[in-house]
Amino acid sequence: MNKPLQFTHINEQGKARMVDISEKETSARVATAYGEIHMNKVVADGIKNQTIKKGEVLQVARVAGIMAAKKTFELIPLCHVLALSKCEVEFNWKTDQLLSVHCVTKTIGQTGVEMEALMGANIALLTIYDMCKALDREMKITNVCLVEKSGGKSGHFISTNHLPHE
Protein backbone atom coordinates (compact mmCIF):
# COMPACT_ATOMS: atom_id res chain seq x y z
CA MET A 1 0.00 0.00 0.00
CA ASN A 2 1.33 3.42 -0.95
CA LYS A 3 1.94 5.97 1.76
CA PRO A 4 -0.23 9.09 1.25
CA LEU A 5 1.64 12.09 -0.10
CA GLN A 6 2.56 14.71 2.43
CA PHE A 7 3.34 18.28 1.57
CA THR A 8 6.47 19.21 3.44
CA HIS A 9 6.00 22.93 2.90
CA ILE A 10 2.71 22.94 4.85
CA ASN A 11 2.45 22.48 8.61
CA GLU A 12 -0.27 20.57 10.51
CA GLN A 13 -2.52 23.64 10.41
CA GLY A 14 -2.17 23.96 6.62
CA LYS A 15 0.12 26.98 6.81
CA ALA A 16 3.17 27.47 4.61
CA ARG A 17 6.51 26.79 6.25
CA MET A 18 10.15 26.35 5.38
CA VAL A 19 11.11 22.71 5.85
CA ASP A 20 13.37 22.07 8.84
CA ILE A 21 16.53 20.48 7.43
CA SER A 22 18.61 20.83 10.59
CA GLU A 23 18.55 17.05 11.24
CA LYS A 24 19.46 16.07 7.66
CA GLU A 25 22.89 14.70 6.80
CA THR A 26 25.22 16.91 4.82
CA SER A 27 26.12 15.47 1.41
CA ALA A 28 27.40 16.52 -2.00
CA ARG A 29 24.46 17.74 -4.11
CA VAL A 30 24.49 18.26 -7.88
CA ALA A 31 21.67 19.22 -10.24
CA THR A 32 21.42 19.89 -13.97
CA ALA A 33 18.59 21.80 -15.62
CA TYR A 34 17.91 22.19 -19.32
CA GLY A 35 15.94 24.56 -21.53
CA GLU A 36 15.62 25.81 -25.09
CA ILE A 37 14.91 29.05 -26.91
CA HIS A 38 13.61 29.11 -30.48
CA MET A 39 14.29 32.23 -32.52
CA ASN A 40 14.23 33.60 -36.05
CA LYS A 41 17.26 33.54 -38.33
CA VAL A 42 18.09 37.22 -37.82
CA VAL A 43 18.44 36.77 -34.05
CA ALA A 44 20.33 33.50 -34.37
CA ASP A 45 22.80 35.02 -36.81
CA GLY A 46 23.15 38.11 -34.61
CA ILE A 47 23.99 36.00 -31.56
CA LYS A 48 26.42 33.81 -33.48
CA ASN A 49 28.16 36.80 -35.11
CA GLN A 50 27.96 38.96 -31.96
CA THR A 51 26.19 41.76 -33.80
CA ILE A 52 23.26 42.22 -31.40
CA LYS A 53 23.24 45.93 -30.43
CA LYS A 54 22.81 45.23 -26.71
CA GLY A 55 26.10 43.33 -26.55
CA GLU A 56 27.50 39.84 -26.32
CA VAL A 57 24.27 37.94 -25.68
CA LEU A 58 25.60 34.59 -24.48
CA GLN A 59 28.14 36.07 -22.08
CA VAL A 60 25.50 38.29 -20.51
CA ALA A 61 23.00 35.41 -20.35
CA ARG A 62 25.62 33.14 -18.76
CA VAL A 63 26.34 35.68 -16.01
CA ALA A 64 22.60 36.30 -15.51
CA GLY A 65 22.00 32.56 -15.08
CA ILE A 66 24.77 32.26 -12.50
CA MET A 67 23.56 35.30 -10.59
CA ALA A 68 19.98 34.00 -10.62
CA ALA A 69 21.01 30.58 -9.31
CA LYS A 70 22.81 32.28 -6.43
CA LYS A 71 19.69 34.32 -5.59
CA THR A 72 17.09 31.55 -5.86
CA PHE A 73 16.23 31.79 -2.16
CA GLU A 74 15.23 35.44 -2.69
CA LEU A 75 12.66 34.57 -5.37
CA ILE A 76 11.24 31.17 -4.35
CA PRO A 77 9.68 31.82 -0.94
CA LEU A 78 10.35 28.51 0.83
CA CYS A 79 13.79 27.75 -0.62
CA HIS A 80 16.72 27.62 1.76
CA VAL A 81 19.76 29.83 1.39
CA LEU A 82 22.46 27.69 -0.21
CA ALA A 83 26.16 28.31 -0.66
CA LEU A 84 26.75 27.13 -4.21
CA SER A 85 30.19 25.69 -4.77
CA LYS A 86 29.64 25.56 -8.55
CA CYS A 87 27.28 27.04 -11.10
CA GLU A 88 27.98 26.58 -14.77
CA VAL A 89 25.80 27.71 -17.69
CA GLU A 90 26.54 26.29 -21.14
CA PHE A 91 24.84 26.96 -24.49
CA ASN A 92 24.66 24.71 -27.55
CA TRP A 93 23.12 25.34 -30.95
CA LYS A 94 20.85 22.35 -31.64
CA THR A 95 19.75 23.71 -35.03
CA ASP A 96 20.36 26.99 -36.87
CA GLN A 97 17.59 28.66 -34.84
CA LEU A 98 17.35 26.58 -31.67
CA LEU A 99 19.68 27.25 -28.77
CA SER A 100 19.78 25.01 -25.69
CA VAL A 101 21.11 25.75 -22.23
CA HIS A 102 22.37 23.49 -19.46
CA CYS A 103 22.79 24.87 -15.96
CA VAL A 104 24.75 22.75 -13.46
CA THR A 105 24.75 23.65 -9.78
CA LYS A 106 26.63 22.03 -6.93
CA THR A 107 26.94 22.37 -3.20
CA ILE A 108 27.70 20.38 -0.08
CA GLY A 109 24.72 20.76 2.17
CA GLN A 110 21.50 19.49 3.67
CA THR A 111 19.14 20.18 0.78
CA GLY A 112 19.20 19.89 -3.00
CA VAL A 113 20.24 22.41 -5.64
CA GLU A 114 17.64 21.62 -8.33
CA MET A 115 15.75 24.89 -7.87
CA GLU A 116 19.01 26.77 -8.32
CA ALA A 117 19.75 24.88 -11.56
CA LEU A 118 16.21 25.53 -12.86
CA MET A 119 16.44 29.19 -11.91
CA GLY A 120 19.79 29.54 -13.69
CA ALA A 121 18.50 27.92 -16.90
CA ASN A 122 15.31 29.99 -16.92
CA ILE A 123 16.98 33.34 -16.30
CA ALA A 124 19.69 32.65 -18.87
CA LEU A 125 16.95 32.03 -21.46
CA LEU A 126 14.95 35.06 -20.36
CA THR A 127 18.06 37.21 -20.67
CA ILE A 128 18.52 36.06 -24.26
CA TYR A 129 14.90 36.98 -24.91
CA ASP A 130 15.36 40.39 -23.30
CA MET A 131 18.50 41.19 -25.26
CA CYS A 132 16.99 40.13 -28.60
CA LYS A 133 13.27 40.94 -28.31
CA ALA A 134 13.54 43.98 -30.59
CA LEU A 135 14.44 41.61 -33.44
CA ASP A 136 12.00 38.77 -32.66
CA ARG A 137 9.12 39.06 -30.21
CA GLU A 138 7.98 35.54 -31.08
CA MET A 139 10.95 33.74 -29.56
CA LYS A 140 9.77 30.75 -27.54
CA ILE A 141 11.29 29.37 -24.37
CA THR A 142 10.47 25.66 -24.10
CA ASN A 143 11.34 22.35 -22.51
CA VAL A 144 12.75 23.74 -19.27
CA CYS A 145 13.19 20.78 -16.96
CA LEU A 146 15.33 19.09 -14.37
CA VAL A 147 17.60 16.65 -16.19
CA GLU A 148 19.47 15.08 -13.30
CA LYS A 149 20.12 15.45 -9.61
CA SER A 150 22.16 13.51 -7.10
CA GLY A 151 22.86 13.53 -3.40
CA GLY A 152 20.69 13.45 -0.36
CA LYS A 153 18.10 10.98 0.90
CA SER A 154 16.21 10.66 -2.38
CA GLY A 155 19.35 9.63 -4.24
CA HIS A 156 20.09 9.89 -7.94
CA PHE A 157 17.38 11.11 -10.34
CA ILE A 158 17.68 11.09 -14.12
CA SER A 159 14.77 12.42 -16.16
CA THR A 160 13.14 9.87 -18.42
CA ASN A 161 11.75 12.69 -20.58
CA HIS A 162 15.12 14.11 -21.49
CA LEU A 163 16.96 12.56 -24.41
CA PRO A 164 20.55 11.44 -23.67
CA HIS A 165 22.09 13.62 -26.42
CA GLU A 166 20.56 16.77 -24.97
From TrEMBL:
Q: Do you know which CDD domains this protein is assigned to?
A: MoaC_PE
Organism annotation: Enterococcus silesiacus
- Where does the chain bind substrate? L78, C79, H80, M115, E116
Q: Which NCBIfam families match?
A: moaC (TIGR00581), PRK09364.1 (NF006870)
Task: Name the HAMAP family on file.
Answer: MoaC_B
Highest taxon in the source lineage: Bacteria
What's the family? Belongs to the MoaC family.
Q: What does this protein do?
A: Catalyzes the conversion of (8S)-3',8-cyclo-7,8-dihydroguanosine 5'-triphosphate to cyclic pyranopterin monophosphate (cPMP).
As recorded in UniProt, its EC number(s) are: 4.6.1.17
What reaction(s) does this enzyme catalyze? (8S)-3',8-cyclo-7,8-dihydroguanosine 5'-triphosphate = cyclic pyranopterin phosphate + diphosphate
**Gene that encodes it:** moaC
Q: What Pfam family is a match, any one?
A: MoaC
Protein name as annotated: Cyclic pyranopterin monophosphate synthase
